Amino acid sequence: MPFIIYISFLLIISCEDFVDLAPPNYKMVTETVFENEETAIAAITGIYNELFSSASFANGHTSSVTVLAGMSSDIFETTSVTDNRYGPFQQNQISPRESPDASANYELWSSAYNIIYMTNSIVEGVTNSTILSEETRNRVEGQARFIRAFTYFYLVNLYGKVPLILTTDYGKNALATRDPEVKVFEQVSTDLDLAMSLLEDAKEYKDLERTNVTYFVAMALRARIYLYEQNWMKAEELSSKVIDQTSIYQIVGDLDQVFLKNSREAIWQISPVPVGSRQTTYTREGYFFRGFRSAPVKLSDDFIESLDPQDKRLLQWVSFYQTNEIYLPRKYKDSNSQGNITEYSMVLRLAEQYLIRAEARAMQGNLLGAIADVDKIRNRANLDLLANAAPGISQEDLLEEIMEERKRELFSEWGHRWLDLKRTQKTAEVLEPIKPLWQDTDVRYPIPEQDRMKNPNLKQNEGYGG
Questions:
Q1: Which residues pair with 179 in a beta bridge?
Q2: Quick check: 69 and 415 in contact, CB under 8 A?
Q3: Are strands 76-78 and 297-299 parallel, antiparallel or unpaired?
Q4: What's the whole-number average pLDDT of the chain?
Q5: Residues 324-330, mean pLDDT to the nearest whole number
Q6: Residues 181 and 161: beta-carbon distance below 8 Å
Q7: 395 burial class (0-12, 13-18, 19+ CB within 10 angstroms)?
Q8: Residue 282, pLDDT above cutoff 80
Q9: What is the model's pLDDT at position 279?
Q10: What pLDDT, on the 0 to 100 scale, is given for residue 1?
């Protein structure tokens, strides 16, 4: 099957409701796609392209994790008090049915499951193939397992219990029940461990493009998972291994260079790809936050006030529009290029690994090591080093500072702040004072009613009705 035909196959799937997909003639597709090395590699390339073109949860645009989870925390606010798409996310009052915010929630949910369906098809395809070389089989399956783990990481963190779909069996998938969060996390860990094993010989980026998953990409996400699981020792161990790859990764001194394509700080990026008649080659994040006249959300006043006036991130990663006095993230500078890609969408980067290690070290009582890691980030931001300003800082205060540094460094990236508040059980403490309608059940998004109507086994999260 030619590359373009296979991509078309993926795009057709992505436009459908995951649980409403008709049983595909999958035997014919898999036999053809995995009949040689070229088409097998094209299959995984198709998923990378899909993450930008049609996967709403991942593309940094209107229904992405970046935008919606940023609204749910204290990072973003709407630019209009009557906004009924993002306003409910800001007030943590998301409807599961028939409303603009419900549509955004559904787009996030369904696009994630479409990606999972595609990764399942590849895992099954390479497993059943007797033609592929061991090297190709390992690389393709390792990348597919990583993307599946990555996608489930966000689903389980946003929705709690979710159906753990691991096959392309339509009949089974259409009636799937929600699995416990611990089981989903176990599968994420299993997939990442297998991905690392399968990609052990793939430590370098193909063609120097940081858009393909390598051994260290899988390791970086695994370090994050260990952090979420509070396995501090393993989180420190794996983040250190990534940080130690100084020939591949480094903290980029100039903040304006961080989000460029194939930045030395980038661990994994998603490349813009022209879609249909649209030949745009800029990131969706850059386009979404392109200017005060069109941006539906802005950086919150609370977030702006949390930044030191001398912080270079305020000066270089934030734009102020005096006309209506709003601040917008400007990590991505390009919002209108045609055919000249200068930036890739950042997914995983080295700064997060330093902050993972800092937290893991602090939790284990290695305060000096944690301070050194935090200062690596603070130094670039032109902030006073903790080693000088607070050398005797307590463990509790240091952990608080690490959380604040994560907020300042990772804002407008993949909902980090929302997930950090949830995993540290700080949501109510931080959000109740600024969100008067807050309830503890708001920590989970509602299961979209469209899928619940088709699958009677999908139970709703507490706080959203039956």
A1: 162
A2: yes
A3: antiparallel
A4: 89
A5: 90
A6: yes
A7: middle
A8: no
A9: 58
A10: 34
Assigned token pair, 236: 């420190």
* 328 beta partners: 319
Q: Which structural domains are found in the chain, ordered by start?
A: 1-202+425-456 (1.25.40.390), 210-413 (1.25.40.390)
Quick: pLDDT tens for 396-410: 999 999 999 999 999
Segment 130-166, tens digit of pLDDT: 888 999 999 999 999 999 999 999 999 999 999 999 9
Residue 438, pLDDT score: 94
Pairwise CA distance, residues 466 & 456, whole Å: 11
**What is the percent of the chain where pLDDT is above 70?**
90
Task: Give the number of other Cβ atoms within 10 Å of residue 211's Cβ.
Answer: 23
SS (H, E, C) the chain: CCHHHHHHHHHHHHCCCHHHCCCCCHHHHHHHHCCCHHHHHHHHHHHHHHHHHCCCCCCCCCCCHHHHHHHHCCCEEECCCCCCCCHHHHCCCCCCCCCHHHHHHHHHHHHHHHHHHHHHHHHHHHHHCCCCCHHHHHHHHHHHHHHHHHHHHHHHHHHCCECCCCCCCHHHHHCCCCECHHHHHHHHHHHHHHHHHHCCCCCCCHHHCCCCCCHHHHHHHHHHHHHHCCCHHHHHHHHHHHHCCCCCCCCCCCHHHCCECCCCCEEEEECCCCECCECECCCHHHHHCCCCCCCCEEECHHHHHCCCCCCHHHHHCEEEECCCCEEEECCCCCCCCECCCCECEEEEEHHHHHHHHHHHHHHCCCHHHHHHHHHHHHHHCCCCCHHHHCCCCCHHHHHHHHHHHHHHHHCCCCCHHHHHHHHCCCHHHHHCCCCCCCCHHHHCCCCCHHHHHHCCCCCCCCCCCC
